[in-house]
Amino acid sequence: MINVAIDGPAGAGKSSISRRAAATLGFIYIDTGALYRTVGLHALRLGADVKDPAAVEACLTGDLHVELRFVNGEQRMFLNGEDVSDAIRTPEASLAASAVSAVPAVRAYLFDLQKQLAHENNCIMDGRDIGTVVLPDAQVKIFLTASPEARAERRYEELLGKGMDVKFEDVLADMIQRDYNDSHRAIAPLKPADDAILLDTSGNTLEQSVELVTRTIRENMPR
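The chain above was modelled as a monomer; its predicted structure follows.
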């Protein structure tokens, strides 16, 4: 199997770019951030303090079921049987995902699922620690980034497009806070793998970024 690991900060366009690159290459796309968002949403719904590791770990009970399904070729996230693919995209869910992803028990809970998906499929998997922790032997590793302002603008437009009432300043502040949380956590902090290819998409259109990533993968895949 050919595995491509794409890491980078929140709002770098990893999901949109990886999804389209995977479709072009005939791979499946696995958004691991959606897994953490789903656990974060679960903790929020239970009223847990997502900044309290013990409280978050208590949410990982036997009746919790996080499932990734492909519906008409699109990844959808299910929480205890409910499709929460839209509910996990709010700013609150983003910050909750960042908080719970620092909890070792959460990472252990989701680790095997991620490894199994990669073992069974040619895939592009994106997240924060795919090239460094989850798939250290991936044939291609990319670290995708852009300036905080560019990333916040993209997320802001995405949320507006979904009819959400948000302010750009709040989205930017959340982005900066999440960057700090992700890069300073003790467990699997956000950082490029030593052999990752760094790609900055600031100023790129989505189409330009997809073409850049797809070309980079093709040029670096095993022959």
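The chain has a mean pLDDT of 91.
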